[in-house]
Amino acid sequence: MKFALCNEVLQGLSIEEGFSKIAEIGYQGVEIAPFTLNENPLEINESDAERCVNAAKSAGIEIVGLHWLMAKTEGLHITHSDEGMRRAACDYLKKLTRLTAQMGGTIMVLGSPQQRNLEHGTVYEDAFARAVEIIREVCELAGEMKVKSPLLLNPSPQQKPVFFPPVPKPEGSSPQSTDPPAGCTST
Question: Could you please report the per-residue DSSP string of 17-69?
Answer without folding.
Answer: HHHHHHHHHT-SEEEE-GGGT-SSGGG--HHHHHHHHHHHHHHT-EEEEEEST
